[in-house]
Amino acid sequence: MNKQDIYIDNMVCDRCILAVRQVVTNLGWRIERLQLGRLTGWPPDGHDEDALVVLGQQLHNLGFRLREGHGGTVSRIKGLIVAYVYNDRADTSHSLSDLISADIGQSYSHLSRMFSQEEGRTIVDFYRIHRIERGKQLLIQTDEPVSAITGRLNYGSAGRFAAVFKQDTGMSPTAFRARGRYVARPLDEL
Q1: Domain tally for the chain?
Q2: Domain with 172 in it: what CATH number?
Q3: What share of the chain is helix, strand, coil (3-state, %, to 5)?
């Protein structure tokens, strides 16, 4: 049996990890590591190709998608960004670019070019979209001051957060909160 690194699109939260773990375990895979965007493990009974096809079908039924080649790296980058933005316990003492480079083991500039070619947008754009979406959630679902939300989203200042937020939404964070309406968008559609 050959250990495989499998990249999975649309994993955006801890529940996704649980869902993928359930499918993989039910299919008889041995898991070495499972994290957002990536599974490392061994297929059942050494049937690498058949097991991968069945796994892909099962995951597709849940809204996930297997990626191969550079796409797998892109899936991992997306998973890292989602974890960095939405996990309040994430280590944000290092820059996102350093985190991505260290996790994948390649230069950020190379990964950035690969991501842009595959996705048609930059890592920075993907990160910005998720930060703004998380900001919307926090503004509506908490009573935290905008300055605290700014810190949670790793903006250098409340003014910078407000400027980016207004550029994306057409209103200030305070006006958005006062409006009180927000419909969450699925993270895999951002």
Answers
A1: 2
A2: 1.10.10.60
A3: 60, 10, 30
pLDDT per residue over 116-142, tens digit each?
A: 998 999 999 999 999 999 999 999 999
Helix 123-141 vs helix 70-86: angle between axes, to the nearest 10 degrees? Answer: 30
Among the listed residues 114, 125, 6, 102, the one whose alpha carbon sits nearest the alpha carbon of residue 70:
114
Same domain, 10 and 97: yes
Rg (the chain; Cα; Å):
18
- pTM here? 0.74
CATH code, domain carrying 94:
3.30.70.100
Distances (CA, A) of 113 to 49, 74, 84: 30, 11, 20
Q: Give the structural domain span for 56.
A: 1-120
Task: Name residue, tokens 């993270």.
Answer: 187
**Is there a single domain that holds both residue 170 and residue 113?**
no
Question: How would you class 184 by CB atoms within 10 Å of its CB: exposed for 0-12, middle for 13-18, buried for 19 or more?
Answer: exposed
From 111, 47, 49, select the one nearest 76 (Cα to Cα): 111
